[in-house]
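About this split. The held-out portion is used to measure sequence recovery: a designer receives only the structure tokens and must propose an amino acid at every position. Recovery is the fraction of positions where the proposal matches the reference. Here is one held-out target exactly as it appears in the evaluation file.
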């Protein structure tokens, strides 16, 4: 097969993977729990028209992350309407732009085929595929760092000052996507590569003044406004989220979730899972370890690929999505190595690349993703239908459902005990099936309306005093 034909087939393969992901974006509910939580915060940003402070709850600011991802998601819902497709579309667009940067990097340092294969690997590995349509902050950080790495490389090796400025702009976006962590994840591989190859003069030639100014102009205004709007933000975000979270495995200061304490080194297992099925081909990197051509570029890719997992090896709290910024480097390393071995056979590459995208689409069409226990879309739909004839609030006892809040446009509410039930009116109570042994107050008359996944929807109203009866969760009155 000619080189031109291989390129066309790789372009077609990349387009097919991206299209398979795009068509399924709106076909399944927001996943539990992080995706629904971030989706609801983006919806609140749009509803409240507050583009400075993301809101964890009405009146409760979210200090855990900067707003770049929320901005993109809220803007998408403003243009397309509130829904799964709109809130996930920014991640897909971010992924497409990331693929174009990967293609460009491979083309400039090797040839177009390497860049295309790198983009295919990145798009079809487990975490790359998920991140191309997920409501999280990690895709924006990954794109920002990809811009920074590409700009740094072009500035250092080719004295391309405009590319270098793009890298500084990427760091500014990184500060808006995840915070100072972006500077750390960029600085580790950049300084390691510079020191190893003694490229200090090239480092000094970078456009530090204009680049730093661009980075600060992009990021600093929001940080100032955020602290002015909600004093205390900088202390929590800079000290809590960027120090205590990573060094204290059971950090109790997290205002918005639970610590994710894992044994040290777990991040490497996450990396293997994130790269699957391409992680099965990692031995190819060892077989090509002695290839001398383009050694500085491969060395830079290795510094980039290893920096994130090495950094998080000593972290107390980690998630598997943390390895996402390293995946473009791993994808380019694999693409470079595979292309050196007599050019990759597309007959073998295509099935591997299409396996997970096709499986994911099949799961969406089958409805498998509807069965997640935290998915409350069906229950909220049942509440909305029942409320037409019998209006009443939707209540969750003892737990907060971000999914229910998103699908009810913020109307679902949580209470801590039965004492807080709205006893003077008809209301709807969402209960987990595992909680059905806990008795309801005897003054309630409840009718079971719907069961979705692991939850039951009850319509309740107070009983007349003369008809008060003892009631258990497992018994309803009609």
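Reference sequence for scoring:
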């Amino acid at each position: 097969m000619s080189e031109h034909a291989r390129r066309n087939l790789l372009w077609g393969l990349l387009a097919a993977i991206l299209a398979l992901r795009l068509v399924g974006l709106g076909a399944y509910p927001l996943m539990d729990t992080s995706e629904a939580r971030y989706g609801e915060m983006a919806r609140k940003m749009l509803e409240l028209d507050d583009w400075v402070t993301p809101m964890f709850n009405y009146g409760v600011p979210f200090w855990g992350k900067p707003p770049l991802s929320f901005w993109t998601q809220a803007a998408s819902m403003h243009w397309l309407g509130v829904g799964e497709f709109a809130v996930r579309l920014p991640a897909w667009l971010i992924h497409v732009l990331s693929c174009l940067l990967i293609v460009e990097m491979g083309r400039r340092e090797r040839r177009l085929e390497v860049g295309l294969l790198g983009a295919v690997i990145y798009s079809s590995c487990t975490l790359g595929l998920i991140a191309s349509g997920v409501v999280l902050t990690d895709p924006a950080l990954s794109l920002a760092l990809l811009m920074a790495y590409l700009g740094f490389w072009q500035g250092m090796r080719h004295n391309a000052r405009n590319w270098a400025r793009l890298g500084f702009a990427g760091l500014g976006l990184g500060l808006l996507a995840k915070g100072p962590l972006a500077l750390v994840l960029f600085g580790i591989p950049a300084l390691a590569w510079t020191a190893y190859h003694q490229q200090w003069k090239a480092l000094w030639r970078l456009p530090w003044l204009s680049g730093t100014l661009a980075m600060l102009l992009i990021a600093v205004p929001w940080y100032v406004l955020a602290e002015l709007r909600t004093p205390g933000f900088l202390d929590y975000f800079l000290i809590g989220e960027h120090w205590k979270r990573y060094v204290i495995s059971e950090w109790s200061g997290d205002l918005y979730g639970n610590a994710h304490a894992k044994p040290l080194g777990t991040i490497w297992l996450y990396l293997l899972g994130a790269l699957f099925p391409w992680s099965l081909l990692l031995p190819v990197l060892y077989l090509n370890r002695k290839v001398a051509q383009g050694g500085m570029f491969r060395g830079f890719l290795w510094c980039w690929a290893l920096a994130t997992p090495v950094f998080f090896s000593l972290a107390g709290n980690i998630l598997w999505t943390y390895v996402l910024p390293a995946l473009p480097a791993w994808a380019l390393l694999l693409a470079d190595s595979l292309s050196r071995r007599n050019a990759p056979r597309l007959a073998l590459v295509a099935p591997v690349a299409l396996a997970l995208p096709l499986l994911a689409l099949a799961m969406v069409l089958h409805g498998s993703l509807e069965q997640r226990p935290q998915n409350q879309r069906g229950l909220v739909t049942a509440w909305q239908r029942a409320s037409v004839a019998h209006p009443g609030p939707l209540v969750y006892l003892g737990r907060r459902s971000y999914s229910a809040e998103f699908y009810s446009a913020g109307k679902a509410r949580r209470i801590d005990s039965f004492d807080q039930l709205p006893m003077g009116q008809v209301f709807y109570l969402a209960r987990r099936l595992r909680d059905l042994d806990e008795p309801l107050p005897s003054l309630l008359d409840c009718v079971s309306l719907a069961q979705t996944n692991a939850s039951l929807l009850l319509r309740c109203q107070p009983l007349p005093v003369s008809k008060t009866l003892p009631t258990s969760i497992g018994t309803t009155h009609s």
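Annotator remark: The radius of gyration is 25 Å.
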